Hints:
With 265 residues, the protein is an alpha+beta fold. It contains 11 helices and 6 strands. Strand 3 and strand 4 form a beta hairpin.
Amino acid sequence: MNDRNETIIDVIIKKADALCPDSLDLIGVYGSVATGDEYEKSDLDLLILINDENGQILADGFIIDDVDIGYDLYCTSWDMLENDAQCDHAHLSRLFDSMIVYCKDKSALRRLDEIRRKAAELLASDKRYEKADKAYSDAEKMLAEVYLAQSLSKARCCAGAAIEFIENAVMLYNGQYFKKGTKRALEELRQLGLPFDPETRILAVIQAETVEEIRAELTEVFILTDGYLQVPKKKERPSAENLRGTYEEMYSNWKNKMAEAADRE
């Protein structure tokens, strides 16, 4: 992390000490700085974790003159982080990947670790299919809006929302999350090894020039995605519970249907 970023973090800590000394729990760094993808004009993605509303005073926006880089500092509450851990979307790098550079005490770290653990367990469980299905359902609602849209701008807006929901659905289905931000979402989708090329299909929607073309290209994305997002079925071992009624069905079919069918030849 360069000197400029370290200075920004120091300023936030000093500001918290002066204006809201009990509000700041953690500061974490994620995004390009954490992944090693930063370049000269990279901004600084920070998890500024606060425990009360007084901490919102730490939020700020500014431009550093000598490098002409704009910064927006947002504060995150514990409730917001808990909501992220529900995995209703796949942009979870802030939760999972933040490198902690400031911590008020160890209890805050333990709380963060527990939230991360719950989120990781959800992504590794079959519940992720429910989350993917919900995201896909939201995408379908946006598809309907595209077909109702009368203007090109409305169709583009709704198609963009549909694509974002689909991207989330595909990542959650695979138990994954976006680690490199929205700009590189297509790259991360490509790395999943899908049976179709999401980048080509999504770019076709973006480059469509009429409402009709947007509808056609977006529908194709849905057809491909719908065929992919099938929840794997587990073959259960026979048990008294899942075989209940089987014998009665077999006996009824033989006694009533097969005997009558034989009589009728």
